[in-house]
Amino acid sequence: MYDTEARHIIEALRSGIPSRAVGQYFSEARPKIMKEIAGRIDQVCDHGRSGGMIISGKYGEGKTHLLNTVFGMAHSSNMVVSYLSLSKETPMDKLYLVYQKIIQNTYLPRRQQPGFMHELEKISANSPLAGEMQLYAAKHLETDKLYYLFRSYLNTEDSDEKFLLQADLEGDFIANGPLKKIYRRIFSQPVKYNVNFTKTRHCGDYFSFMSHLFTQMGYHGWVILIDETELMGRLGKKARLNAYRNMAQFLLPERCTESTFTIFALSASYTEDVIEGKHEYENLETLWPNNQEPARTVLDLLVKAPQLVPLTREELSQALSRIQDFHGKAYDWTPQVSLDSLTESTQSAGYLLRTKIRAAIEFLDQLYQYGKAGKTTVNELGEETFEEDVPVLED
Fold first, then answer.
1. Cα separation of 195 and 176, whole Å?
2. Which residues have C-beta within 8 Å of that of residue 378, sequence separation ≥ 6?
3. What is the pLDDT of residues 44-71, one digit of tens each?
4. For the whole prediction, is pTM greater than 0.70?
5. Which distant-in-sequence residues (6+ apart) come within 8 Å of 291 by Cβ?
6. Burial of 114 (0-12, 13-18, 19+ CB in 10 A)
């Protein structure tokens, strides 16, 4: 009888669609970079040292697969994980939209579905955790909006108010006026902001609040995984520079929130196509001649980002050995093929890891169905482009 989980792994690999389930079984690939990432995660868990890194790679070379592997590593270390891909609806230059999408795609350890608001509902207004979070919101953020909001959330018994305040914590920010009205109704006291909150300027408060909340809830940190970072290249000139500045809040230790580790994954051609092709350093000097940091530092990090190189023959053989094992379990058979023959079957599939894996699965499929295998037909697919079908409006 076939193994359901193994069948899922094989079908995910066959389709080329990244899967967290696949990632947890193939973590031994790319040992050098995985060792570095594991060390960075340990620094967060053991010492609370925040930071981030950028990885690059060609289309189909395994960037998303690596992020899914890190996802599993982080959960195994009792860390909260958020995973998102940048898009038109979630551009890096608008941090408040990124925050909303991150919160929608946040997974607590050992949870298959995103979400953590049910944990907030368990916090009583007089608990030590509630007191700590209110003190933090009042004293350690740029604005004190979250102090008034979180205190109201903990103390209101009105379901409509509760829903509105929870939606704010999830990134659907409410205006200052309604919050003041809610707070006055509950506590019979006026709200006096030290700084008026605006989502375009103070969204960083929400990242700081959530990272502190996760550590206070007993988790060992927060890992944020951001894919398709190369889509920043389709933004207008000023928007791209704003995106680099926003990235600094996830990459530079002195700007990061507590106990967080972030990985950005982007195309290996980003430096050539965007940073050099669109003259980003010159743009920075022209638009922000006296305020180039931290965008310049982030540009430097993008240029120096380590690239995922093709697996060595030994590394590829190890991965194919796992695939052969899963294929046997998935279809309840014992593949009678040497590892050298399986590796050789991938050579006509080009250099991309994704197509090599699919070629190996096609080879095993033919053996399973017909008892022999001919030449595989998997080919390499297209590459990224940083140009839209419609003009981009420069800021």
1. 11
2. 349, 355, 358, 359, 362
3. 999 999 999 999 998 877 898 899 999 9
4. yes
5. none
6. middle
